[in-house]
């Protein structure tokens, strides 16, 4: 059983296709990077998988069942920039939102949920900021809180949209070690990533995307200059090929 199976997914914004006939499966327990230039459809793919935007066609299965039946198994870390950080709430409450699948809406979180949420904050080094308003956190701290929320969800499959954007080097290291920890627990983590220099170091597998699927598979097989040229076209000339 594959943790993620995407079949023939096409997405269009106002009739303009931004993802065309995307199909792939990923194996369990891997860290997978989704790589492609700006506007390639990476975010759109994640959102379409989660049913946040409509698909023109295609299906997404999580462990052989439609996504809609498996929501609880899937954790999502949205792009930090897509969130209203002025919303008046503190770090702990954001993390507790990750528990709602377990608590049930309209019920108040119990002591155990709060303890678990605090544990998750601790894992990302943010326990001391539990009562801090999210508007008063730095970008890296906000990203850590998002990760704590995903941890609190205790999902099996994680979809993350650019978790490394706008964070300092220490936070980037903390995030990657957390992702490796999730992997060690047998979880499957799909990460939209734009920094080609770190792909080989971070990811077991890569999905190269630009409107269509260019290639998917183990990083050492798929992350090649030839495939990158197909993905980035002329823009690859600007990249430091010595690191590829
Ligand atoms: P990436 O994440 O790879 O940078 P996106 O998935 O954000 O790419 O965007 C893919 C394409 O879809 C781009 O051309 C973008 O302009 C377009 N797009 C994204 N969101 C919307 C939207 N809400 N309405 C219309 N077009 C959109």
From TrEMBL:
It holds the Pfam family ABC_tran. The keyword Repeat does not apply. Coiled coil: none annotated. Gene3D superfamilies: P-loop containing nucleotide triphosphate hydrolases. SUPFAM superfamilies: P-loop containing nucleoside triphosphate hydrolases (SSF52540). One of its GO terms (molecular function) is ATP binding. Keywords: ATP-binding, Nucleotide-binding, Transport. InterPro entries: AAA+_ATPase, ABC_transporter-like_ATP-bd, ABC_transporter-like_CS, Metal_Ion_Import_ABC, P-loop_NTPase. Residues 4-236 form the ABC transporter domain. Belongs to the ABC transporter superfamily. This is Metal ABC transporter ATP-binding protein. It comes from Bacillus suaedaesalsae.
């Amino acid at each position: 059983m594959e943790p993620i199976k995407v079949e023939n997914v096409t997405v269009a914004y106002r009739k303009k296709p931004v993802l065309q006939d995307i199909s792939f499966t990923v194996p369990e327990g891997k860290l997978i990077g989704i790589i492609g230039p700006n506007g390639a459809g990476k975010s759109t793919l994640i959102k379409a998988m989660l049913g946040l935007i409509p698909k023109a066609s295609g299906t997404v299965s999580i462990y052989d069942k439609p996504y809609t039946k498996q929501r609880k198994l899937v954790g999502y870390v949205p792009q930090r920039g897509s969130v209203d950080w002025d919303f008046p709430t503190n770090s702990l409450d954001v993390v507790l939102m990750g528990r709602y699948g377990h608590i049930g809406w309209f019920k108040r979180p119990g002591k155990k949920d709060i303890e678990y949420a605090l544990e998750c904050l601790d894992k990302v080094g943010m326990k001391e900021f539990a009562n801090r308003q999210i508007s008063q956190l730095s970008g890296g701290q906000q990203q850590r809180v998002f990760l704590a929320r995903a941890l609190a969800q205790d999902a099996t499959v994680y979809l993350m949209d650019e978790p490394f954007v706008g964070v300092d080097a220490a936070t980037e290291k903390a995030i990657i070690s957390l992702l490796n920890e999730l992997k060690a627990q047998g979880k499957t983590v799909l990460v939209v990533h734009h920094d080609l220099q770190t792909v080989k170091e971070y990811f077991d597998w890569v999905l190269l995307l630009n409107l269509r699927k260019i290639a998917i598979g183990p990083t050492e097989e798929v992350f090649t200059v030839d495939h990158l040229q197909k993905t980035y076209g002329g823009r690859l000339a600007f990249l430091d090929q010595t690191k590829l």
